[in-house]
Protein 1
Amino acid sequence: MEVDILKFQVPVAANKTLFVWDIQPSHTETQIYDRLYGVFSSFGPLYLLKVCPNGSLSPPGFYALIKFYSAAQASEAQRQTDGRSLFQSSPLKVTLSSKQAPHFLSDSSRPLSHARCMELANHCLGFNGWTSDIITLKELTNEEEEEGGGRWRRLRFGCLLQLSFPHHGQTTRAAAVVEDSFTCTGPDVLLQKRRQLQKLVREKALVQAFNTVLLILLGNGKLMVEVKRTSDQFLFEQTDGVLQVNQFVPDEEDDEVWDPTVS
């Protein structure tokens, strides 16, 4: 039975990336995006879809880059769509990328953003297929100093969270800590910053929890959920009354590496 594994990590493998060529300029860029998304998302969840105009030395038209989370779904999409017209009068050319990612990317395991984690989980498991619960949310540091005529403030929050998959009998825990230093000009500024950090630390803990989860796609269409057990995995009997944390830095936009090399 064919098995494919989806991780809550940014996909970088070449066998998950498709290029679509020979897109006619008979539709707008937005229309092309919508049509391509409708076709290719039917094969599985997409991490990325970008539509770009051809270069100045090429005939008028567009090409597209599509990234799947699953190599098997990318391969199936390529086989089913290559040479078909789909939404235009002439056939499209759909190819798998042939060039491997740079070593520093292929060996990395960048976690998905908070929004991407939820998007992938909801797509594969359904909106009632997983739950998250805050076990502990604490203000760890609240320091204040006079600086240049203003008040300098340092806040630090920690969060311990539990992620559950009730239909699969799997549960995992993870933690995060975030902090910020700022000039406090009044109680409204302090309240707003405290709310921002509380939201951010919850999101960071959820990302950390999803990063231990594997979605296993079976050839018969069924899906299994497994949790990676690591040396720092939180055990239920060890977390009562204790907050353990991992240091995180603020989210950055996902940087895409464009590789127009195809097979």
Protein 2
Amino acid sequence: MDKKTIYDFIVKDKKGNDVSLSTYKGKVILVVNTASKCGFTPQFEGLEKLWKDFGDKGLQVIGFPCNQFANQELGTDDQIQEFCSLNYGVTFPIMKKIKVNGSEADPLYKWLKSEKGGFLTSAIKWNFTKFLINKEGEVVGRFGPTTSPASIEKYIVKELNR
């Protein structure tokens, strides 16, 4: 059987429409679980900067809101979009709110965690955990919430230049 890649997954956009991640074939993808009321929320600014600086060079940033950590994402999908846009000028796609841990975790996140486990456990420990996907759809990096988007830039550039 062929090894799974990110292109095998279908996610929901903010309106609940299916989005095949194969749409992003050949791009370097940064997948992030986000929250509007988190100490790391200002990372939206850095994520948007990466998207603006490298989007036309082949980077795709995708946010997945999640309310599994201290109720830091209570808003509706529309409220989340508005918050990200108004407060941080976010223009990269923010998908429908999902679960990233537990039995109801989105299949994409189950796969991401199985590909790149975390420290001690593969569970997502908090908001703004970042997964870097190469142009072949494989997970090549996992970065914790405290890792700033700016410090990931060198890894993104490395993948873009492959």
Protein 3
Amino acid sequence: MAFIAYFLARADVLVYFSIFIALFIYWINGIRKSTAKMPPGPMPLPVIGNLHMVDLNRPHESLMQLSEKYGEVFTLHFGPKKMVILAGYKIIKEALVTRAEDFGERAITPVFDIISNGHGKPFNPHMLINTAVSNVICSIIFGKRFEYDDPEFEKLIHMLDENVKLMGTPKVMLYDYYPFLGSLLGLHKKLMQNIQDLRSFISKWSMNRRLDFNANNITGYIDAYLLKQEQEATKAQTYFNEENLLASVLDLFSAGTETTSTTIQWGILLMMKYPEIQKKVQEEIKTHIKPGQLPTVEDRKKMPYTDAVIHEIQRFGNILPLNGSHSTPTDVYLRGYLIPKGIEVIPFLTSVLYDKTQWKTPYDFNPNHFLDENGKFVRPDAFMPFSVGRRACAGESLAKMELFLFFTGLLQAFTFYPPPGVSREDLSLKPGVGLTLVPTPYMTCAKPNY
């Protein structure tokens, strides 16, 4: 009841008591809807369900603890909203790969529904990495890259960064469970303004491209989309409308920036934390890449240790712990339990990337997870940071290329070490709060390797 007391202490008691009554009725109605044998789980409390058992700042940690008690398939009540949690490599592979049709729908959550309508001194690499990675997806979407000091581009990156942080906060998670409390929780103001500004930028860009459109000179995704619009102009119904253009570009722009840049930030932090691993990577780089020559994608095949380190950064960093939510298109039976049609299902990736039955030292940063006894690269089946099945990340191939080129290029040119007065033992590997698990903000020093 501490959760309710927190709310009551913040405003007029009568107002919040009325809200409490409404929530209680809402919860009762939700409980009555399902009497079939769903997976087991902790007994929900009125109104809040099992929210008292989940740290909304770090839900993946709470889910790991709950999976130890309730097993690989269990039900949790996030407020009045029931969710099924899949925990562990075997069950997630069964659901998302073996039975992909049964778990292939994308869950539509309220918040995602909103989104769819230099000199040796210590520095924080966060924004530099974000802008560099974002320019890759910009060249694909817009057909051009932006200068790092372009004020409009800087604003876009800041808004994306802020949205990722906002979407991982308890307020947004509560909005997904109690969407009718959105305005009361104060969610819409900043998040909605950022989304509107991003959509306005994309809309302005597409309008300008439409004016200069040349079917013989397709420079990016927007041009290709406009061409398809032109080809389907006579159709009564088409998916290639303006609203879908805005939604798809925003999706590509956001996803194509955040996950890769966050992984690279983890990479720099871990190289500072484990300088012996950084040194071994640099030795392999010197062996296989000539001085003055930039790394290429083909170099990865002959650099197993570097490849193993990058994969271990992805596994250990665990940047998307709760995966993207799935839903069931029909009633589904899994391990003898009923999972009703349309229920939100969370294939809990932390439980796979840290599965004690699949990794020798799951809670340690250990590149040997991806090397055999002869030092050759191997990829265990339980490595699924991009998820698996029908809803696996569409940008996996691009991300793998980006990660190798950025990480190898950075370690070829620089050695990263903590700022003066900071030991590697002082470096925290505890992630910050956000939709993705970003490293806690840190400073680094980059010494040129020449």
Protein 4
Amino acid sequence: MAVHKMCVVLGLVALAHAAYSAAQHRTYLRLTEQEFTMLPPDIFLQCALGLLITCYGVVNVAGNFKEIKASAEQDNKTWEMLANRQGFNIFHHRGKALFQRRTA
């Protein structure tokens, strides 16, 4: 688990350094009055590797994933339990008054 957290930290540091390097490169191009076409390959590679390392660490730190199946949570329940809809049981209604047994 600690290895994966270190991957997240290392990846975020690499991304921050790539962003800082890209900003410095843009500043250098403005000072020398050159046109910006693309980032140097080393900055681009650092950004891509930082992103991959961060993604790897985040996915492994998150823990076990649940299944995407909609019925995965209901697999261990019986049909009687699934058919029981407690929200629709109403015990206080006027049918009690309409269908009372009348004693004479």
